Amino acid sequence: MYSIWKRFGKKDASSDLALKIQQVKKSSVPKHIAIIMDGNGRWAKKRALPRIAGHHEGMKVVRKITKLTSQLNVSILTVYAFSTENWKRPKSEVDYIMKLPEEFLGTFLPELIAENVKVEMMGEIDLLPEHTKRAVKQAVEETKDNTGLILNFALNYGSRAEILMAVNKIIKDVKNGIIDETINEEQFSNYLMTRALPDPDLLIRTSGEIRLSNFMLWQAAYSELWFTDVLWPDFKEEHLLEAVEEYQKRTRRFGGV
Ligand SMILES: CC(C)Oc1ccc(CN(CCC(N)=O)C(=O)c2cnn(Cc3ccccc3)c2-c2ccc3sccc3c2)cc1
After folding, report:
1. Is 70 in contact with 242 (CB distance < 8 Å)?
2. Does a structural domain hold residue 188?
3. Binding residues for Mg(2+), per the UniProt record (predicted)?
4. Are the beta carbons of 241 and 64 closer than 8 angstroms?
């Protein structure tokens, strides 16, 4: 009896998810969702596992959430692996992290291509090891003609550095007479790493931290912010759907103003 209930229950969960997806797709879905993926280390610590186990688990969640946002017809999913002490971590952890992209792309690139996903990245990839750079460049190259969801990785991304870089480029262009001395918001945003992307409509951060941590400060000026205590490796489709439903409630009210 138990096995029947167990099976029945299982079937119920997946069809329940399918129902929720149909429900969410009935209203306006955010065009651009940005996620600060935080909590891998804490997730591992809670289970007395090495931190790299949290990163490995976190990578599988990136794949799951990419598939769901693609199903929801979201246009852009920007993922930022939040970590202040990225480079100050023990060498073994940094080495592992820098191998993850090859595993992620090696395992999931065929699936991403089948889903018509376009892999993009913003940030300084020069600092990445050669083998990591190669994997990223290959994924960007192999998916450049895809027209579905844009999966945008923020690599070594810092918003203030991005804004300063834009200002310095503008100063140079004004000196060289390429642009006038006054520019508008649209011209300014063309100098940012996100130049061609629309601003994020919904910004999600996991693991209970309620901070932007120098992430897309210019671009998130009008984003709906949604925070959850859930640690990134525990983040499920249901959590993303909950965030989108909350976004739909808020923007419906805004629309009604
Ligand atoms: C095209 C794409 C696959 O290329 C990439 C090239 C280099 C990186 C490494 N990296 C950039 C360096 C930096 N942020 O300083 C990170 O963001 C970083 C820092 N921790 N974790 C573990 C973690 C895993 C999952 C979720 C959060 C953190 C990651 C990390 C490593 C591998 C993968 S695979 C999908 C996401 C992801 C994130 C990332 C991507």
Report:
1. no
2. no
3. 38, 224
4. no
Q: What is the pTM of this model?
A: 0.92
Give the pairing type, strands 32-37 and 150-155: unpaired
Q: Which ligand 1 atom lies nearest to the CA of residue 119?
A: 1
The ipTM of this complex is: 0.92
Per-residue model confidence (pLDDT) at position 186:
94
Q: Going by CA atoms, what residue is nearest to atom 22 of ligand 1?
A: 55
Tell me 178's DSSP state.
S
CATH number at residue 32: 3.40.1180.10
Residue 254 Cα to ligand 1 middle (Å): 35
Residue 20 lies in a domain: no
Q: What would the DSSP string read from start to end of 59-77?
A: HHHHHHHHHHHHHTT-SEE
**Domain annotation covers residue 53:** yes
Q: Provide mean pLDDT across the span 236-253.
A: 94
CA distance 26 to 43: 34
